[in-house]
Amino acid sequence: MLEIQKKNVWQWLIAALLILVIPNLICWVVQPFVFIRRGYFVWEYLLLACLYPYINRKIFILFWVLFAIYDIGYAASSLYFMDVFEIFHALVKIPAMSVGDMLKWSGVLVLFVALTIMLVIAMERYNRYYPFLRFKFLWPFMFGLLLADFLNGQGPLSKWSIGLLHIKQNIVSAPSWPLMKSVQYALANNNDNNSKNDSKVEYLGSVAQRVFAPKPDSAADKKQILILVESLGVVKDSVLQHEILSPLYQLATDSLYLLREGYTQHRYLTQAGEFREITGYLFHSYQAQTRLVQEKSIFVKKQHEGYYVVGLHGFQSGFYNRKKLWPALGIQEAMFMEDFVKLSMPLCGNINFQGICDTALSTWLINRLKSDPARKEFYYWVTLSTHLPLFEIHDDGYNGFAEKWKKKGYTEHVLQMAYQHQQYFRDLAGKLRQPGAPKAHILLVGDHTPPFLDPDDRALYDELHVPYIDLAPNR
């Protein structure tokens, strides 16, 4: 009898180990090398396992594999996008990849699917020997993991939890929950397009709203420029951060501009950075026409102050649906890649995110400012050339810049980003100091920290803040 009991205990322990390890093993292996946000365990796998006795085996494996793909995809993307629909939109709008990249990512996907199927089959085979893929066995794990997360103060129950354990990482994730909430919000917005649905709009604060606050006409600058700088983060090493921004500091040293700088909070990627600076709030793209967003938009406010509002971006107008979003937020004239190509302006960047060179756009902007000096104009420029993946530069200038930092252990990825930001600022500063250059009040602010996949690279940056540099003409 005792031997039978011991055997049952071992069978139970093995089954418990399998149901806890197999759904999460691949992510545990990948996590040290790729920056992902995910709990140690994912609750939905337990729910899927409960369905095993009731559905066809092949359908069960198909559901498991599809959810596993969604799980790791969401874990790798949730830091960067506000909701699942934004992830899907970004994937659909990414330009055609090279054959090499397509083969590489197809191979990764095939390998992931094959490993997932192998793990599921291993779990399934043990289930024939000791049936554990059933609710009767699994419910204590489902309840226990949620209880642990409730005590930890994170995960799907964070709003109601008490936070006694204080473990930094989530114990349990439930990636299907954000998908359901996204669908709910989108349906609610479609049912009430005039939206009193402002409760889902989160305030974060806008540097642009403070810097470009209304002034009397006698004190207001006729030309104001808000530049959202792609992937400009705060490097924790203050010396390197200073070197990146040094061309802008030189403008102040030469008494051409008054410079103020600081840091502001950020969340997610570029679109959230845009909404943050335009309105001070984080919201979903389908909420752009809500009453609150319309009232808070800096573009609408600038129109009321008598400014003509122009937006420019070197990428395609369809990406993030800017061709519709920008006018909805108050931009009166929008210029995108397809417009600048007609002007024979050069392309820059990695082939996956190739667009009009920021250096060419700065020339266009300076000339546009000169064309009507007396007109009140507000320009909004979203830069592109420092978008990941970068087109790497290996000239003498880069080698001289990177040499000392490589000795301190900085990787090629981080140094390429730092150098290309510095070069962008050098180009802009050089054009602002030219004789006859128009005087404009300029605010440069980062949209988000560089979204490097390597956790070690990301650790070199402030996770919560991006820098801003306010350049006011020295009258």
Provide keyphrases for this structure.
475 residues, transmembrane helix, single chain, Sulfatase N-terminal domain-containing protein, alpha/beta, elongated, Sulfatase_N, seven-stranded mixed β-sheet, Alkaline Phosphatase, subunit A, Alkaline_phosphatase_core_sf
Can I get a quick summary?
This protein has 475 residues and is of the alpha/beta class. The chain has helices at 2-21, 25-30, 43-50, 57-77, 84-93, 99-129, 135-152, 176-191, 207-211, 238-253, 270-279, 291-296, 298-304, 322-329, 337-341, 358-371, 396-406, 412-432, 455-458; strands at residues 41-42, 172-173, 202-203, 223-229, 257-265, 281-282, 308-313, 333-335, 347-348, 355-356, 377-382, 441-446, 465-473.
